Amino acid sequence: IEETRQNIDKISENVEEAKKLYSVILSAPIPEQKTKDDLEQLTAEIKKMANSVRNKLKS
């Protein structure tokens, strides 16, 4: 249960970071590729952790 809570907290932190990256991308006239790559990597990590939490809750 503790691991699931930690994963949920980490997902929450990553979502906040993703919001910041979205703001940077939307406010820049020409967004940097590195920022887009960082956002893509962060999104993939969020999905992976969310699937892990979902599977633990189902079992």
From TrEMBL:
GO cellular component: membrane
Syntaxin N-terminal domain segment(s): 1-58
Coiled coil: 1-59
GO BP, sorted A to Z: vesicle-mediated transport
Pfam families registered for this protein in UniProt: Syntaxin
Family annotation (InterPro entries): SNARE, Syntaxin_N
Keywords linked to the UniProt accession: Coiled coil
Name of the protein in its database record: STX3 protein
Organism this protein belongs to: Oceanodroma tethys (Wedge-rumped storm-petrel)
Gene assigned in the entry: Stx3
